[in-house]
């Protein structure tokens, strides 16, 4: 219950405090990608329940209908600012500030045995795994078979780290992860 209260107050405060910058980033993303500026996608949430995640749109369609990361989108992804609309997901209780990053169907929802305990956690904006793999896109783009690398190396390591969080999470631990995330993003 204390975690939910913290998540609610943190996300509400952040949304109110950053409302003007968030609106400006949203307008820039909409202009840059020639879209609504918001990306919506189904993700696996707590207990395997599907929910809709929100991000600032970073991909635009070019004249030849090929999807391409926009210049603004590249900055938003690198700085992780594209993730800020998920504060809404936290506010309404679908996500937490700290917890396993929510994945698309076909990953967390297919876990078995002890690994399924990860699904008991609310997905989060940040985690030890998301700090470790802050440059996941670069890692994947530098491999010959990104899907295989993700499935065999990255995802199993994230599950292991998220299980460790499941067994050892605490309010103080969450604060440390939040601080690490802020430091990681300001040094990126």
How would you describe what is shown here?
The chain is of the alpha+beta class and 188 residues long. It has one domain (2-186). 51% of the residues lie in helices and 14% in strands. The chain is built from eight helices and six strands. The chain has helices at 2-17, 19-33, 71-79, 86-91, 128-132, 136-141, 146-168, 171-186; strands spanning 38-44, 50-56, 59-61, 67-69, 96-98, 124-126. The strands form three sheets. The protein has a two-stranded antiparallel ribbon. Strands 3-4 form a two-stranded antiparallel sheet. The chain has a two-stranded parallel sheet with strand order 5-6. A hairpin with a 5-residue loop joins strand 1 (38-44) and strand 2. The radius of gyration is 17 Å and the shape is globular. The protein starts with a helix and ends with a helix. The model has no long low-confidence stretch (mean pLDDT 91).
Unreliable spans are none
Shape: globular
Number of helices: 8
Task: Please state the oligomeric state of the protein chains shown.
Answer: single chain
Measured as a percent range, the helix fraction is: 40-55%
Structural category is alpha+beta
Proportion of beta-strand residues: 5-15%
Largest sheet: 2 strands, antiparallel
**SSE order, one letter for each helix or strand:** HHEEEEHHEEHHHH
**Through-space gap between termini:** 33 Å
Radius of gyration: 17 Å
Side-by-side strand order of the widest sheet: 1-2
Mean pLDDT: 91
Supply the number of structural domains.
1
Number of strands: 6
């Amino acid at each position: 219950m204390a975690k939910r209260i913290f998540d609610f107050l943190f996300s509400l405060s952040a949304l109110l405090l950053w409302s003007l910058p968030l609106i400006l980033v949203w307008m820039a993303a909409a202009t840059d990608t020639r879209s609504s500026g918001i990306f919506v996608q189904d993700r696996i949430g707590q207990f395997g329940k599907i929910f809709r995640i929100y991000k600032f749109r970073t991909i635009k369609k070019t004249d030849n209908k090929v999807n391409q990361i926009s210049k603004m989108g590249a900055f938003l992804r690198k700085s992780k600012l594209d993730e800020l609309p998920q504060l809404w997901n936290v506010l309404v209780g679908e996500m937490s500030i700290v917890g396993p990053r929510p994945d698309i169907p076909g990953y967390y929802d297919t876990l078995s045995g002890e690994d399924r305990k990860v699904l008991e956690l609310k997905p989060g904006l940040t985690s030890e795994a998301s700090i470790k793999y802050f440059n996941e896109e670069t890692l994947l783009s530098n491999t010959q078979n990104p899907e295989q690398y993700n499935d065999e190396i990255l995802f199993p390591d994230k599950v292991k780290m998220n299980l460790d969080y499941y067994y050892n999470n605490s309010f103080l631990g969450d604060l440390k992860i939040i601080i690490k995330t802020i430091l990681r993003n300001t040094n990126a």
